[in-house]
Amino acid sequence: MPKRILIVDDDPDAITFTSSVVEDNGYDYVSADNGMKGLALAKKVKPDLVLLDLIMPEKSGMMMLQEMKKDPELRKIPVIILSGASEELGVDLKDFMIKQPLKGRKKAVEASGEAQLTKPNAFLEKPFGADELIKIIRKVLED
User: Fold this and answer.
1) DSSP 3-state assignment of 101?
2) Tell me, what's the pLDDT at 86?
3) Of 118, 130, 137, 143, which has the highest C-beta tally within 10 A?
4) Overall number of domains in the chain
5) What range does the domain containing 84 cover?
6) Cα dihedral sign for 110, 114, 115, 121?
């Protein structure tokens, strides 16, 4: 049975591109156009992986990620952030989200587990190519 990937993005073109890459490489997918629907779908279908945009209406990708990591049934599902937010915000979110501890609170954050609430398994900056996307999906899923 193929692994199922949940794609959450408010851009229909991004969903079309991402779903094509996913399907062409033997994965099943479901999709949602905002974090609220994405979270509900994650609870319903328990995907093997979530591909998540950050800036969306109704519930941002960051809020969805935080809620997933707090939910005992969803917290172990790997998440790859696919976002162009770094360009829009002028901040290198990959370094911020993946590598950097919270200044002055590192030990307290590690002890509480809070660091895991907003840490995705990987981050891919938009725009990206099909090869780049499938490589990171395979790495996270360890196919």
Assistant:
1) coil
2) 54
3) 137
4) 1
5) 4-141
6) positive
- Residue 90 and residue 59 in contact, taking contact as beta carbons nearer than 8 Å: no
CATH code of residue 115: 3.40.50.2300
Q: Which residue has tokens 């969903």?
A: 15
Q: Are 77 and 43 in contact (CB under 8 A)?
A: no
Residue with the larger pLDDT of the pair 128 and 105: 128
The DSSP line for 37-100 is HHHHHHHHH--SEEEE-SS-SSS-HHHHHHHHHHSTTTTTS-EEEEE-HHHHHTS-HHIIIIIP
Question: pLDDT tens-digit profile of 34-84?
Answer: 999 999 999 999 999 999 999 898 899 989 999 999 999 999 999 999 988
Whether the predicted pLDDT of 115 surpasses 50: no
**Neighbouring-strand partners of residue 81:** 52, 123
Is-above-0.70 flag for pTM? yes
